């Protein structure tokens, strides 16, 4: 049977060959005019089997159904395998369709029964090995391979382990027998299918530009009918319609080219038929749009030039210059963008070729995944595409040349050019072929002028992603190869040559940059004005020719992810295969005449290397002979990669790439990690701020992974620890200089990183607090802030893992960064009534973070703080001008407060910090923070050792000396011989809101500090210190003009120090002089401090109060004679006001004699001050002690009211003529002097105070009836309401004064008696001065109505306002009286 079948197959093969030759001759000479054989006898070999009979065998018999031969390949008939395989292969080659035999194999390989599938794999293995020699002969007209190989390759990744294992065994054995080209042949035919042809974007742009120029020339030439139609580019539709037919014809012609002498001629005829269609298919719609655009621009330019007038030329020139400048900038930007797309290849038509590409790449990926030991890649590196050894490879070679021809700008179909005419020859090694094909597929896009479906765009994107995946697998396996022990230098050179010839790194970087640009363009919508102008000016750009899709950045993510994996593998491979190592990659570039001679000395070589590296790192394009890590494109992409516009989904992949590539970055390490760290910190900060302000409700357009902050934090930890810590476990040797430069760059970013850690730590603290509140039942549920910070425990661990290793060798730098962060987190406002600094919540988070580092105990922290304060310039870069000594002391104060318990055991570190810091030339706030720290030391109980006490006293002395020097910096000598000082006339510097004034701090803590430092037997040691300090403070207290903040702070300090009797020698004399100074009362709210100071002065000096009361007014020589008595009386009143209740009641006889003396020949000013003293006596002397003074006070009050009444009375002893003539003069308003108005106001205030005093504090004012009416006489109807004869009715003084004012002023001033519903309370008078006596009217009217009984029913009530008596709260009344009297003493600052 086998012999008969073999004989028949030989006859069929011979008949097919003869039939093809006869048909070819007939077709070739039939259309020829000069047939050389015309008229001659011809001999023709007739096929043994006529074509008609051959067609009948194909259609009417099952001869080609070789199921029998396939079934005989079982294990039971092994002796028949050779002949069966030979016949089966011949039958497969001669069958009318290749699918006949392929169907039989594939049905068995894909059978549902697992046993049948395993048997089919065995039979295929037999078929494969026994056809190895048969495929190489050239005895048949066709040479076909088995496409069922694709099914076997798919089985390599089968989920069934036995199937994949069987396929794996076949693959390993086939590779060991050098069958790699046979395995790849069907895959290569898929990847090189004519429907996947592509051309360079430059050729398409050139053709489109030429077509536009031709159209423009035609439009300008006018309506010439003889214009040839060939000038217009033909449509591509005809070629698209006939594409499938051409593909079939091409395959048949290429298969017959080895056997028929007319194959090339036939191919040429095909080329002639299709050459008219052209290679670039622009759309007619777009051409029209471009032409219209050109016409529009031209017409606008013409119209503008025609309409120009001489007046508009200047404006037009300016506008043209601005337009030109904008166009130049946009052209540069457009040029940079276009450079990203010049590597692109364009498909001429949307023929669905991406499906074949995707299938071929999937098969290739399966092969690479199934050979983890790099057998396949090793075979690819050793095998070339040799067509002389296998006839069936001719088609692969032919398609490869045609693809190369199309990329070079020529036609895909037609006769092949000679290899020398092509600018780039076909690759020789299979690995080079596969890498080139993958790169071509990666670079291939659909043009923008084709109408495509979304499926085509998506399919091409999948093809590109798969091509990068295959490339990555090849590169990874090459890395595995070069890492082996026995890798030769020749192998390394060949791999380096492969990367260089195929331009793998260049195309990978260009593709990544273009993809990132597409993502950014989708995020930044809207064209700039310059882009619009450039579009108006016309011109095609490479970007406009590429169909980038409409999906935006999300569509680019899969491609970018795979490209990053490829770059990661390439970086590692470059490190191993680069000649002399990557460090030597920046040697002189070939072709550069300036670098033709290498440097002779090592220093010159190092300089040359650095210069070339800088040129490469700054270049916008790919620079040959430099590795990826030294390319400006890569560094720029890495610096921008984590920006939000490039997509949050890509950030983890970029972080992974850069972290894994750290040992290979070399000189670029510091350049890359610095912007990367900054961007990571910004992204984390933005996420935290978004969470804080919006409650975790993100408004990003894209979803961010919940573990996004953890990913960034882990990447930051990896990068920082690599640069900071010794990487002894690293397998890659790094240049110490590169690591040191990177370490310096990371040190500059350390404050920013610590700030981000503090923000994250704040989130952790809030999350844990809310969780504890939820667990304890105080909250109904745990209100989780955000999905990004839900896992606070893991976040806490990651933060500590980042910081803890840095505390060892970089503790000082870490603490300096704490100072920078502390300084940046300034409080927006200072706490009111808080002199000592209070750390804000943001700053307390920093303290808690440092406290959580278990490697930093309090002794270590204070030691690091001391080192930073001694050398505050620890942080360079952007923070170079920032001194961190003061923030460090502020931090240490807050830290010591929280860690007080640990500090009690050992105060030596804090004393050491104080001792070292006080010797430095710190800015003023630093010394007062030292005071604060010193104050805190004194709160600790165990300072019993004499050495510590002595050290503390020494530090305190130095601090006080320095503080005094700082206070004296704003003082100057009154004369060059005098030792007295005065305040310099200079504007007051506004202290920052968070920094307390120096003297404020002194006043708050200095006195108790000294009391603690100097024990009871050492108090006298403090007096010289205080004297030296107050020597600089008293000049501020003498000046009230332009240093009120310093005046108030000095008063606070003096108030604090004067509380200790042992210090009176240092201030007694100066305070008394200040008290007698004419400007003593020119102050503001600092009066409270002066009350304490005067009280201390009178308390510590036993006879001081008595001497003050007995002082003669003539002793006040600084005042004028008229002001001496009232000013002395005011100071005597203030002295009593400064004391406590009943403190001076024993001196009442002296005070009584004083008042009696003053009543003699008293002036209005003296009377005013006397009533002020009376009011002070009401507040400072109890009612039982004040009885003897009441007659004097009431008599003086009656005298003043009587004087006022007399002044308001009209004169009656004048003639009628005089009355009529002088009515307005004598009965009109009275002109009181200011002194008189002050006297009357002071008297009314004394009356107001007496009436307002709470009854429980003082018995009812017994003389009230003499001043205010208690009964309305006009309504009284009780007994004894008639007056005794010759007796005058008793009218209260208030009523008399009120009537007098109304009589004198009422008619003239039009005073109205309007009712008021306001609820008035005593005291009623709060104003400090009067401009007219009429301002007392509301007060007088209220008094007239407030103490009368309510009217009987039926009678109208009084229409004047009534004050509430007694007041509801006696405490409030007394407090108001205190405030009013205190303000009474103060003089206006303006006066």
Task: Give the secondary structure arrangement, pairings included.
Layout: H1 2-30, H2 51-60, H3 67-71, H4 81-94, H5 99-109, H6 114-130, H7 149-155, H8 161-176, H9 180-191, E1 199-200, H10 201-221, H11 237-241, H12 243-256, H13 263-274, H14 284-306, H15 313-338, E2 345-346, H16 354-369, H17 375-382, H18 394-407, H19 430-443, E3 444-445, H20 454-482, H21 489-502, H22 504-523, H23 529-536, H24 542-545, H25 553-577, H26 602-618, H27 632-640, H28 651-660, H29 668-694, H30 708-724, H31 736-748, H32 750-775, H33 792-803, H34 806-809, H35 811-824, H36 841-851, H37 858-870, H38 885-898, H39 900-903, H40 908-917, H41 924-937, H42 946-967, E4 971-973, E5 981-983, H43 998-1013, H44 1022-1038, H45 1044-1057, H46 1068-1075, H47 1087-1100, H48 1104-1109, H49 1121-1138, H50 1148-1159, H51 1164-1180, H52 1190-1208, H53 1216-1226, H54 1234-1252, H55 1293-1309, E6 1320-1321, H56 1337-1346, E7 1363-1364, H57 1370-1385
Parallel strand pairs: 2-3, 6-7
Antiparallel strand pairs: 1-2, 4-5
Helix pairs in contact: 1-4, 6-8, 9-16, 10-14, 12-13, 15-23, 16-20, 19-20, 19-22, 20-25, 22-25, 25-28, 27-29, 28-30, 29-30, 29-31, 29-32, 30-33, 32-33, 32-35, 32-36, 35-37, 35-38, 36-38, 37-38, 37-40, 38-41, 40-41, 40-42, 41-42, 41-43, 42-43, 42-44, 43-45, 44-45, 45-47, 47-49, 49-51, 51-54, 51-57, ...
Question: What's this model, at a glance?
Answer:
With 1391 residues, this protein is mainly alpha-helical. The protein is 59% helix and 1% strand.
